[in-house]
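As the next step, I selected for study one protein, both as residues and as discrete backbone shape codes, as given directly below:
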Amino acid sequence: MKSFNRLIAAVCLLTGMIFIGANLFLRAGGQNSSGRMYRVEIARLAGEISRKGYEAAGLSGCQHVHNIERLELTGSFAQAAAKGNTGSLVETLQAFFESPNYDYSIRLIDHTLYRFDYVPQTTADHQSLAVVVNLSLGAVSLLLAGVLLYIRCKIIKPFEHFKEVPSELAKGRLAIPMPQQRNRYFGRFVWGIDLLRESIEQQKKRELQLQRTQKTMVLSISHDIKTPLSAIKLYAKVISRHMYEDTAQLEEIAYHVNEKADEIGEFVNQMIKASGEDFLHLEVAEDSFYLSQLVEKTAGYYKDKLRLLHTQFLLETIPDCMLQGDFDRSAEVLHNLMENAVKYGDGKTIALSCSEEEGYVLVTVKNSGNTLPETELVHIFDSFWRGSNAGTSAGSGLGLYICRQLMQQMGGDLFAQTLQGQMCVTAVFRT
């Protein structure tokens, strides 16, 4: 806000300087352009008066001279004029010939003093030009000031109310809601940030619940394992001390040891099953959307990205049919498939194609340069699994696992195959 206030002050200062500079320029230009045109008109009128008399001098055609005054000289004034002492004569009569609104010039013609009143070009033309320029600059200045004040009141100032929200979210303070602003510029932004806050808060609650459940399960199973484990240790002591020598008794002990071992094995299976269950809470919306919209959103982003990577992008003709599912989640799946193609392909070619099959639409992302062994193909949708071709590439091994879970929740599926040395991953959508 302070920086923007300084910007407003700088703009106002610059506008004032432009005003002053424009007026100084107009004044200097007016003075320079006024020229001597009025002198030419006065000389012409003086010649006519000298040749034809005062009555014959007409002001028609004069743009600057608008009035002629005559004074007959008598007595000492006439004598001074006869001697040619016009300087002292003009000074003597200067007050009498003063014109309050116009400029004038005094000429002595045939012992008669004439005053020619004229309007300089500066006053006539440049005064109107100065008015137009000042009004134009004033209108532009007011418009600029209005725009700056509008930006300050409608954009900068409202943003001040929630500029600290991202840092609060980063600190884990999720219970504080976003301040509501009825602002058409930030309405969707505020709604999105608030939705993000609620999503993070819900995810944190789910993680805490999952940790509590896992801890309870481990404690419970640990307690349950102690009983068969104690029995096995007891039977081991009996056998080590040769307390039973009868074969039937030893077989009974072996049977009980095996039974207790089976109980422990069952507990272990429960732990494995619990650890293998879906640990992510993925929500999808039941909606419908056009296939062309989904493909255009994906292709629109990756065309530029692949061009920068010098990778050829092949996009086949897309049938404009209706798909069932969550549009945002579907776009997330395709983006993940494209990212994997960029990351694990050889960078030469990536293709996006579609086909229809028995009420389903198959969208396939294919990249050249498959580096994944055939034996590992069955594991690429397992959670936390990364192939031998991952190398030093960053990743968690959850991308394809999450994509498959999303597709199955939308009534579709996700599968992968290798064709002619190329990696093909296909998303199956319901129509």
The first strand starts at residue 65 and ends at 72. The two ends are 52 Å apart (CA to CA).
